[in-house]
UniProtKB/TrEMBL annotation:
Keywords: ATP-binding, Nucleotide-binding, Phosphoprotein, Transcription, Transcription regulation. SUPFAM superfamilies: CheY-like, Homeodomain-like, P-loop containing nucleoside triphosphate hydrolases. One of its GO terms (molecular function) is ATP binding. Gene3D superfamilies: 1.10.8.60, 3.40.50.2300, Homeodomain-like (1.10.10.60), P-loop containing nucleotide triphosphate hydrolases (3.40.50.300). One of its GO terms (biological process) is regulation of DNA-templated transcription. This is Sigma-54-dependent Fis family transcriptional regulator. Residues 10-124 form the Response regulatory domain. InterPro entries: AAA+_ATPase, AAA_lid_NorR, CheY-like_superfamily, Homeodomain-like_sf, HTH_Fis, P-loop_NTPase, Sig_transdc_resp-reg_receiver, Sigma_54_int. The modification 4-aspartylphosphate is found at D59. SMART domains: AAA, REC. Residues 149-377 form the Sigma-54 factor interaction domain. It comes from the Bacteria.
Amino acid sequence: MAEKLILTQRILLVDDEPAFCELCSQWLRQVGYHVDSCHDIASAQQQLQQQSYSLVLLDLALPPSFTPQEGLKLLNDISTIPVIVLTGHADRELALAAIAQGAWDFLAKPVDPDMLAIVVKRALTKHSLENEVQQLKAQLAEQQTALGLIGVSQHTEMLRNLISRIAPTDVSVLISGPSGTGKEVIAKAIHQLSYRKNQPFISVHCGAIPSELLESELFGYKKGAFTGADRDRQGLLALAHQGTLFLDEIGEMPLNMQVKLLRVLQEGKFYPVGGREIVSIDVRLISATNKDLPHAVNTGTFRDDLYYRLKGITINTQRLADRPEDIPILAQHFLQHYSQKHQRPLQLDANALHWFITQPWPGNVRELKNTLESVAAIAQQPVIGINDIEFLNGNKLSQSSNTIPELPNETLDNQVRHLEIRLILDALQQVQGNRTHAARKLGLSRQGLLKKMERYGIQDIDHS
C-alpha cells in the first residue's frame, strides 16, 4: 500500500457494485482521502449538485441502462474536475474513447490498490497544477486589462514583452503606427510599469494645440508675458517633473517648437514664456506618431536631430485587421464595460462575432470600440446579433455575415485564422455550446478545441 498522505480532497466513486465501492473506499481512506459512493447516474448527479469533489471515479456502464452512454453523458456534464474511468479489460477501447472526450485516465478492473492510489494522486496533482496555471493566467490577464494591453495575438504578446523590458529604464520611446491602434495605451503601460508610476503622466496632443499656443502650454508663462496672461501658469513640462511626458502626434509639431523642445531634452531646463528664472525638469519622454517620420526628416518637415533624440527605442503598432484573433477578447472587454454602463448583460452571438472579426477596421481599435458602444446602445436583447448590426448600418452590412471578406493585404495566416474562428463558432452554435460535441464535429480532441478557443479568445455560446 502507498505511503499514507495527509490529504483533504473528497472523491466521488460511482459504480453499480456496492462491494467494489466499499473496498475501493477503504483503500482511498487509508491514504487520507474523503470518499463518497453511489451506484447510479441519478444519485451521482445529485451528489455532484450537493457536494464539491476534487475527483470522480466513474464506471461507464451504470443503471438504468447499463450502457456506456449513461456514463459518457455524466462525463460530458463534469467539466471542472478530473474524472478517472473504471472499466473491464475488454472495454479498453471504450476507455480510450472516454479519454478523448475529456476523462483524465482510466483503470482496468480488477483494480490494484497501489495503482489506484498512484493514478488518483497523479490526477489530483496535475489538476491542482493546472488550476494554479489558470489562476496565474487570470492574474496576468487582470494585470494586462488594467494596463489596457488586451489581446492574444503574437503582436500583442510581443508588445507586452517589449514594454516589460523597457519600462524600468529611462530610454526615450517612439511609438509609430496607424491611428486608433492604442499608442497612448502603450505609453501609459510603460509609465505604469516604471519607477515613475506614482508620479504624473502628462499627455500632450501636439496636433490639437494651435501652434501659437503650444509654447506657452508646454513651458508655462509668467504674469504679463502676453495679453491675457493675468497670472503665472505652470506648463505641462513642469507638471511632468519626475514623471512621464507623452507627446502624441509629435509629427504635427511646428519646426520652431521642435528646436525649443530639443534644447529642453538636451539640457533638462527651460525658461517659462516671459520668465527669467530657469526651471529644471526630470522627465521620461515617450512620443507617438502616425506619420512616417524618416520621410518627414528627408523632406525637411521634421528635424533629424530631434528625431534621433526621440527614437531611443521604436515600437511599431499593427493594424487591427492584421491581428483578428485579438478582436473576440477586445469585444468581450468592451462589452463588459458597456454591460455595466447599461446595467444589463451583453454579448455577441456567433454570426455577429464573425462579422466583427472579418471587418477591415480602418479606424482600428478605436473604431471597433465605438461600433460596439453603438451596437450595445441600440440592442434590445442581451445577445447581440446580425439584426442589431444591420439596424446600426441602415440594414446594409459592409460585408456578408456568411462569407469571409478579402481584407487589404490579407495574408494566408490571417485567412486561416478567420476560417478556424468561423468553423469553431459554427460548431459550438450547432451543438448548443457543448465543447465535446463541437470538438468531435471539427475532428479535434476536446483539449485541442479548448486550446484554440483560448488562443482566439472565444467564449462559450450562451443559449439561455
